[in-house]
UniProtKB/TrEMBL annotation:
Residues 1-134 form the CWH43-like N-terminal domain. The keyword ATP-binding does not apply. It is a multi-pass membrane protein. It is found in: Golgi apparatus membrane. This is Post-GPI attachment to proteins factor 2-like. The gene is LOC102806920. It comes from Saccoglossus kowalevskii (Acorn worm). The chain crosses the membrane at residues 5-31, 43-65, 85-104, 116-135. The chain holds residues 48 to 206 of 206 of the full protein.
Length: 159
């Protein structure tokens, strides 16, 4: 079995690709309205939902792997953060299945008001997706990213 670091690197690349697909599909959704060209809109929507859910899974696995297999020194705040992200994923996927139920009922029986419920749940999915990304970025508010090998605290020496 490959070393956990190799799995972690692959997971990071997968998460990056999924987030890129998610962003591009959202861009497609904003550019193509369902009234203009419904098949393309449906493809963009399904791609957005699937890449979003898979990204959430990848990120939760990434946090789990980094905590359990690579670095054992997660703070209490980081553990709470991971639980929050897992909860948001569970909420999002539950809303997804609920929306599919109402979408099926709307298409199968054409009941009055069912499409409105579907649209409401779809909006909740969008908001929970945004909440996931905001919660995810909140973990990095107290972190610094340093590029290079020299410290930038002192000005460079001039001749």
């Amino acid at each position: 079995m490959p070393h956990p670091v190799l799995w972690y690197i692959k997971l990071c690349r997968t998460a990056f690709t999924l987030q890129l697909v998610e962003i591009l599909s959202l861009l497609g959704l904003t550019m193509v309205a369902s009234r203009e060209y419904k098949p393309a809109h449906e493809i963009f929507f399904v791609t957005f939902i699937m890449s979003s859910l898979l990204y959430m899974i990848a990120m939760n696995l990434q946090y789990y792997l980094s905590r359990k297999k690579l670095w054992n020194a997660f703070t209490l705040e980081e553990q709470k953060h991971q639980k929050r992200l897992l909860g948001l994923f569970i909420f999002n996927i539950t809303c997804f299945f609920v929306s599919m139920y109402f979408f099926y009922r709307h298409n199968r029986y054409c009941e009055p008001g069912v499409y409105s419920i579907y649209a409401l749940v779809e909006s909740i999915i969008i908001v929970s997706n945004i909440t996931f990304h905001v919660a995810e970025s909140a973990m990095f508010t107290k972190k610094e990213i340093v590029f290079g090998t020299e410290s930038l605290k002192s000005p460079p020496k001039s001749d």
